[in-house]
Amino acid sequence: MSEYFDGGCTCRAVRYRMTSKPMFVHCCHCRWCQRETGASFALNALIEANRVELLRGQPDVIDTPSNSGKGQKVTRCPACRIALWSNYGGAGDVIRFVRVGTLDEPDRCPPDIHIFTSSKQPWVVLPPGARAVTEYYGSKREWPAESLARRAAVLG
Ligand SMILES: [Zn+2]
Ligand SMILES: [Zn+2]
What we know:
Blueprint: E1 5-8, E2 15-18, E3 24-28, H1 31-37, E4 42-48, E5 52-56, E6 60-64, E7 72-76, E8 83-88, E9 95-99, E10 113-115, H2 139-142, H3 145-155
Parallel strand pairs: 3-10
Antiparallel strand pairs: 1-2, 2-5, 3-4, 4-9, 6-7, 7-8, 8-9
The chain binds zinc ion (2 copies).
């Protein structure tokens, strides 16, 4: 299995590569993610921006409101408008929230944690033993040490 994780939009005008595994994967059940995906949750792989290479295309960055009130920048294909990743106000431009569903092999990035389960749609049943929090959480308690070190390296 390659260490690369390639992905892209639906029309294939934009292609990208994550050059390593992500630091952490969120399955977010908040109402905002439900609306943005048109579904029941968003699955986001958190990874350093400098580990995401653009292979093809020139995506648009769209300022979008966010749950936190700080806003997010959503990177989309300029043709089919599929969202590829977000940058949120809190973590800034150095950490991307890559939409796992846009990876060619999304099965390789299952969630490390379920968040905002207070608004989880009731028919979504989490696997036994899955890590889950009703709202947000403290990274220091949940992230592996290796991922915390990676995050500290880019946040400075
Ligand atoms: Zn496209
Ligand atoms: Zn959310």
